[in-house]
Amino acid sequence: MKTIRLAILGIFSSLLINSALAQTEYLREKGITDLYPFYHGVASGDPLSDRVILWTRVTDDTLTVDSVLVEWRVATDTTMMNIVSNGSGYAKASKDWTFKVDATGLTENTWYYYDFRALGHFSLRGRTRTAPVGDIDSLRFGVVSCSNYEHGYFTPYKYLTQRNDVDFILHLGDYIYEYGAGGYSANLSGRINEPANEIITLSDYRIRHSHYKLDENLRWIHQNYPFITVWDDHESANDSYKDGAENHDPATEGSWTDRLSNSGQAYHEWLPIRSPEEGDIRIYRSFQFGDLINLPMVDTRIEGRDEQGGAGDTDDPNRSILGSEQYDWLVDNLSNSTAQWNIVGNQVMFAPLEVFGFPVNYDQWDGYNYEREQLLNVLADSNINNFIVLTGDIHTSWVNDIPLNNYDASSCTGSAGVEFVVTSVTSTSFPFNVGPSLIQSMNSHMQYINLSEKGYGVMDVSKTKTQFDYYYMSDIEDPNSSQYFADGYMVLSGEKCAQQSQGYSSRLVPNPSLAPEEPIHMTNGIEDLVYEEFIIMSAYPNPSSSNITFQIYLNEETDLNFEIFDTEGRKIYNDQISTGKVGVNYVQVETTSLSQGIYSFVFYNDVNRVAKTVVKSE
């Protein structure tokens, strides 16, 4: 047996100084022509303990058939060698050539990689994971809402992907916007809606979804995390309700029923959501994450909402924001939950927001106060603790206690739970004529307000507390914007009031490597995978603090090249290994100079490329 030793330490410091020169080309900087026929990338969503939805879209304008065979597979490694689930189906013209599959037979609480193959080409490899079961210590969620293409760059998606320390992404609605080009816009060069008209028809909605999915940052975050999504109003039309919308005129735009059906069909085609029966666009559903989290996702827009009213309508017992069927479903879900935390994914602000004694926005739960009071009574009567509401819609950031009639801020009594409102990804802030201090003076249950910044949230849920951290962009109109941590708020288990944290939350054990930048056929230069020339049989110790040894089996003598990538896709080291002999070979790599974290060690020759994830410990 032949041992090849590589000493990184001697040259690593100079590589760090010049790391920008060695940085690999990010996927999001690639031309989409490299991705044929999967230009829109890959996505996953609605994770359960044994399955997850996988999504892609096949695009080829030369097709003369009405369906294309799509093969899919799920593996535990980035090279797609250890296949654990696979199958095939058809991308159909009737579904706008989108393809979804519920990949079953998976193991709970496990990260996976997946890809698709159609028309002789592989898609990008995606990364996803399943939900946990049983006793769970903690989980982390990225939380986003309100992503208007024309109002800025999707840099929050980029930074949320790069951090690689959350398990799932929650999108609380307004994933797309319906307006025509320039209709609700910051008028940025290169950020123009397609189609240019306001979207009404099925074709319109499909094109708008397609347009969004071609954004490199949105494509990248979908590639690397499973999404759990709900719609708000702009997936159909502004301030929508079950029978219409503020931004819909039947006289000029036709039937609302038709428009709603069009928007719902396109949404289910283009999102990795577990769709109900054909023709049923219902999206309220729930997810369980072991004994830690019960996560019902509600629809406060389409399912049962009555038209928005005014001051005289808020306490009308005949008006609903959920509809009776969904309300009963939510009450049953919360009343029978055995999870430590009950977290409701919601669209519009749940807590009261009043200025000079009057609700600011009757589109929010304030406009449906009777139903809100009924739900709060259920929480009290059923002794439902650790109740949290997650909200988007309002394009600003808030942390609210959820006040009951006997609420007292100074003693933290009379609160039903806590609401975390995430700001928009890009959408402009609503014009408030008063500042945060005055709003808080009139709403003592509000603990934090930011009315201007754009970004995302990170929710860290553990046995002892749930913390929500706010991250903002320095300039959402700059594609190279930096980000910063603004503030964090938490609620302790067993308590019902929010308090400011001492800093941001963090994950001690990092996630596995992000999905590779290129499809396998791009990496190998051939259409079929070739594994026979060499195989990495093991790498040990892993995690490693100083040295790691790779056991590599060669079927024929070959020169091997060696590269190391960090979790942001930067190539931080490369070298060539002298020819190995047929059989088992050992390559020992000194890792002392690597910082603590996760790395991808890649070995390759002219026709094969194999990666191994390595954890560098202290």
Name of the CATH architecture of the largest domain: 4-Layer Sandwich
CATH topology of the largest domain, which one?
A: Purple Acid Phosphatase, chain A, domain 2
- CATH H-level superfamily of the largest domain: Alkaline phosphatase D (PhoD)
Helix/strand-derived category reads alpha+beta
Helical run tally = 11
| Number of structurally distinct domains | 2
Q: Which residues sit in consecutive blocks of at least 5 with pLDDT less than 50? A: 1-30, 522-532
How far apart the termini lie comes to: 30 Å
How do the strands line up in the largest sheet?
A: 6-3-2-12-11-10-24-25-26-27
What's the mean pLDDT score?
89
Got a strand count? Answer: 34
CATH class of the largest domain: Alpha Beta
Shape: globular
**Overall radius of gyration:** 25 Å
Q: What characterizes the major β-sheet?
A: 10 strands, mixed
Q: What is the percentage of strand-forming residues?
A: 25-35%
Helical fraction: 10-25%
Report what the structure shows.
With 618 residues, the chain is an alpha+beta fold. The protein folds into two domains: 1-24 and 531-618, Immunoglobulin-like (Sandwich), CATH 2.60.40.1930; 138-500, 4-Layer Sandwich (Purple Acid Phosphatase, chain A, domain 2), CATH 3.60.21.70. Helices cover 16% and strands 34% of the residues. The protein is built from eleven helices and 34 strands. The strands form seven sheets. It has a ten-stranded mixed beta sheet with strand order 6-3-2-12-11-10-24-25-26-27. Helix 3 runs parallel beside helix 5 (216-224) and helix 4 packs parallel to helix 7 (256-270). The longest helix is centred in the middle third of the chain and has 15 residues, at 256-270. It is globular and about 85 Å long. The chain starts with a strand and ends with a strand. The relative contact order is 0.13.
